[in-house]
Specification:
about 170 residues; alpha/beta; binds thiamine diphosphate; Rossmann fold; four-stranded parallel beta sheet; binds magnesium ion
């Protein structure tokens, strides 16, 4: 997701996992009148998923989107690239990169902490779920089911843009 305007997109400089959800709570506390949406991978969100409990407990109306590809996909992409570089044939990824078994049900996980949520499995469901997410000022979680690979170029583009703001 490319950054477009200063003050609208926050990431950690080094791309640390686990920052998206508690970070969204912090930004929402600083800007209670603005819509704040924290994005996280499924793996990254598991670092600090208890932020949902904090949001409910203190009634912070941040929104949370989990991009669920059932894996540490960037690590898979990185190791694929490394194997290509050193001429190793593609083969099964290390088991630890897989998050598909058991399946993590993020909507249930959110519900267990008092936060409503919805799962998006088809493109046509995105609009209605966003409408539901933005209908009030309560915390809300969207579990976005994704296939396909991470595009590392896009990630570096976003980080470079943020660093440019900081330097400006
Ligand atoms: C605190 C921390 N631990 C480990 C890493 C290394 N790391 C970078 S990407 C990644 C996998 C991220 O998985 P996920 O959040 O599911 O996103 P995906 O790549 O699947 O889109 C890991 C473990 C990191 N950046 N930060
Ligand atoms: Mg993932």
């Amino acid at each position: 997701m490319p950054a477009r305007a200063a003050g609208e997109y926050f990431v950690t400089r080094g791309g640390s996992l686990g920052v998206g959800f508690p970070g969204a709570i912090g930004v929402k506390l600083a800007h209670p009148d603005r819509t704040v949406v924290g994005f996280s991978g499924d793996g990254g969100s598991m670092y600090t998923i208890q932020a949902l409990y904090t949001a409910r407990r203190h009634n912070v109306g941040a929104k949370f989107v989990v991009c669920n590809n059932r894996s540490y996909r960037l690590l898979q992409a990185n190791i694929d690239a490394w194997w290509r570089t050193v001429g190793i044939e593609p083969h099964a990824h290390p088991l630890g990169f897989d998050l598909s078994n058991p399946r993590i049900d993020f909507v249930e996980l959110a519900a267990s902490m008092g936060v409503d949520g919805a799962r998006v499995e088809r493109t046509e469901d995105i609009g209605p779920v966003i409408d539901r997410m933005l209908a009030d000022d309560e915390p809300f979680l969207v579990e976005l089911m994704l296939d396909g690979d991470v595009n590392p170029d896009l990630i570096w583009h976003s980080l470079r843009t943020v660093v440019r703001w900081e330097a400006a």
